[in-house]
Specification:
This protein has about 160 residues and is mainly alpha-helical. The chain is built from three helices and no strands.
Length: about 160
């Protein structure tokens, strides 16, 4: 006699026969082929998207590197410009200091010359006054007045 497992096997074979008669296997294979085609299409789309993404990444990396180089050039140019401006300002400051020093030295030299002239004038005036006093006490008369006037003129001409 047939056991339960044998009946299950017989029922399975009958079911498979019915499926074959009605063409269920073709429908299953067609569905599997459609699914396979859809999966292949999705894989191809994914591959294409991956390639596009790789191109975009490469393009953005190139842009970033270009921007970094440009930023470095801008920084280098700014540093060079700052150094040039600093050197120019230093040169102008040194020139200004040199001119002010020269001007101060010139003013000092003029003040020294004026002081020397003032001292000479004061010395001449004192010498003239002293000579006039001495002459008036020692020499009398019109000779006295002529000698005093002549001496004052000589002293003023020599000292000025």
């Amino acid at each position: 006699m047939l056991q339960a497992e044998d009946w299950v096997a017989v029922a399975f074979l009958i079911l498979m026969g019915i499926f074959a008669y009605f063409g269920v296997h073709r429908t299953l294979l067609k569905a599997l082929d459609n699914r396979s085609d859809r999966i292949k299409k999705e894989i191809d789309d994914a591959r294409r998207l991956k390639e596009e993404a790789a191109k975009l990444v490469a393009e953005y990396r190139a842009r970033r590197e270009s921007a970094e180089r440009e930023a470095q050039e801008i920084v280098a140019n700014a540093k060079a410009e700052a150094e040039r401006v600093a050197a120019e300002a230093k040169a102008k400051m040194e020139d200004f200091v040199a001119r002010r020093t020269k001007s101060a030295e010139s003013k000092i030299a003029m003040a020294e010359a004026q002081a020397l002239a003032d001292v000479r004038a004061a010395a001449a005036e004192a010498a003239v006054t002293a000579a006039g006093s001495i002459m008036s006490q020692t020499v009398k008369g019109s000779l006295n007045e002529n000698l005093i006037a002549q001496s004052i003129q000589d002293v003023r001409q020599k000292l000025n």
